[in-house]
Amino acid sequence: MNASFDTLLTLVKEKRFHALINALDSMNAVDIAEFLDTLDNTQLLLVFRTLKKDISAEIFSELSQESKSHIVNMATDTELAHIIEELYVDDAVDMLEEMPASIVKRCLKAANPETRALLNQFLKYPEDSAGSIMTAEFIDLRKTMTVEQAIAHIRETGLDKETVYVCYVIDATRKLEGVVTFRDLLFARPDQPLKEIMNTDVIFSGTFDDREETVRKLTRYNFLALPIVDAERRLVGIVTFDDAIDVIEEEATEDFSKMAAITPLSESYMKTGILSLAKSRALWLLLLMISSMITSVILEKYEAAFSAVPLLVSFIPMITGTGGNAGSQSSTMAIRGIALREIALKDWYKVLFKETSISLIVGSTLCIVNFVRLLIMYPGQLGVTIVVTLTMLGTVLIANAIGGILPILAKALGADPAIMAAPLITTFVDALSLLIYFSIASAIL
Amino acid sequence: MNASFDTLLTLVKEKRFHALINALDSMNAVDIAEFLDTLDNTQLLLVFRTLKKDISAEIFSELSQESKSHIVNMATDTELAHIIEELYVDDAVDMLEEMPASIVKRCLKAANPETRALLNQFLKYPEDSAGSIMTAEFIDLRKTMTVEQAIAHIRETGLDKETVYVCYVIDATRKLEGVVTFRDLLFARPDQPLKEIMNTDVIFSGTFDDREETVRKLTRYNFLALPIVDAERRLVGIVTFDDAIDVIEEEATEDFSKMAAITPLSESYMKTGILSLAKSRALWLLLLMISSMITSVILEKYEAAFSAVPLLVSFIPMITGTGGNAGSQSSTMAIRGIALREIALKDWYKVLFKETSISLIVGSTLCIVNFVRLLIMYPGQLGVTIVVTLTMLGTVLIANAIGGILPILAKALGADPAIMAAPLITTFVDALSLLIYFSIASAIL
Q: Which residue in B242, B320, B365 is closest to A282 by CB distance?
């Protein structure tokens, strides 16, 4: 794909717009947007204005935030109105949420009153709610319609809907009564009324439900779309599978970030500036550095011990390292399990039992290998060998227990389990393993 | 949902199967399967056999591997034939892949010759290929058909297809020529031939293409389904959005596991036994423990240094900890960026530049805080304070550079970037930071 970007760029530079439009004609909107994102601001605006009106909004919704901003800044009121009216409400809301207030005002002014009211309503939903990811372009039907009438209605109103494949049956007060897929319509008799074929056990989410829960519901049932209702069970929007996929990717990326002690970024790594990247990491590093002060305090307390047996110092990084790794294994499993809804709060004792059993098996293995190795490499040091081996077992035991339980505890307290990942766990485990190490050393040596 | 599971269980126990079937009738297949998974083996078989034949295959495909095994083991040849014939090929293949050879043989024997040939062909695709996740139940059309004929054809053949919403146009040799969505058909004139409305710039994958690449293609373009072709560009299957979502979740879970030094599990954490869990972790922990031997060697070498200034020991966990955290921040960003295709191999110098710049900003911040803190807490120890502060800067610099580059290097060498995560990076950084620490200490003190 990138290979032909050069050809396209040549056409732009030589201002051969007719040839350019022809070349773009066979391309998918996503690829065209990727190409536009490579252009400089002047070229971008020039090419965007030559695009066919019927596809320009679709391409616009796929552009980077930077390109969108530039186009919106430079657009005339007529152009702005066209973009706002043609975008699906969810894409328009996504765009507006990232724009400065003055631009948002101009966009809302350019929209027609109906769209403006809708946008204002959608902009109010909290960031992580189902309302924030839904769109308003769905097909609604009445249960008294026949299959034939429903198909005619879809033909009439469906052209600018996000999907025509799942339709919702509502009553006179817009309350959700049933769901009908196009497949149902296709295989039913034309004269059958919808109330005979619709599914009345509709699975739905509320506008203020968590967006991750909403998406899990959609993926659990392999739905193309999930209806979103307000507090009175009136249908106000739908979430489609492509939005669901975006949320899944975003939530995973957020978890990866948090688990590495990084404040989640709003753009991709490559598109985020160095200062923003540094800011997303510095605070956490600082916090962790300061909390590791406790290890210094512990070590100072036991200065006498390692002054007497300096060899003890040599094993500090190995012990804290292994403890950190074991803890991060447990916490990663727990965090991912909670995210995928495989581990519930009530499972805490099962997790604790599993982790303790695992730590006994894994810990013993490490101890045996370690014991043999130290026996061979440090022949005269049976005392140290025993101390290190016992510490290893204790550390793995504590690390697994802490790693398995803290994410569940975080969830129980309403915090994000992903915070309880390697960095924080390591800090705890470092301190505890040193305490174990020197307590055992003081007792034995 | 779980609340009513008790009611259902009572019906099962009291053998009130008629009431049970009525209760299940309003439930989604996914929920029914979840209920069946809670039953014991005898109950499971009993209830499964009373299910309506037209939904039993769908419910079967949603069962846990354990329940599937039990049903297949106990099924008569007629029942087996029904299950195999009614399952979508991808679900049948998924099931067979987990079964012992003797059961696979029985299943294949029970299938009709056509299904058997298809299953044998699909079972041959490598585990991570597009072929391994595709299914064979798609709708194919000819370009000479009119819209009306196409819709009639879909009505006739579509009932057991995985999707009727995306149809593929093939020629007499089954080569893929175009794609038509049901939406296109709905808004076209009934007498238009498909060749006028089909999209000939079809985006597809090959059977042997990587499944992750295939899924990225589908999600990039927000497709409901992606066609899969063989080496001769003949259409052999499709991958649908729900399979894509499963792959995305699985790949993310795999990355989470690998990044925590865990061999990815084939089942969920809660469903995996303690021994398997221990096995998935012990080898990596052992490997990392042994590689951390290098830190012991370094510390032994500098025994004189910390014997002279024991205070130096107190800061070891803080330095290695901060280095590990900084390195894990960088490597996580790089690994996730590569997985989402945002970072390409050719971007390595951009990543290196970014990480170096970030480390200068973040490192300086940490140094200043640390310097002030040590000045206050250890008033007479200006030398140690300077050594620790300089080490901190050097460690963060090296940790970020290593963390950013190693995942890209792994990708370049054809290895999985997720291996180059916190645990391995920490081991490298531990050793390097100790070298820096004691080199600076020896020079200054």
A: B365
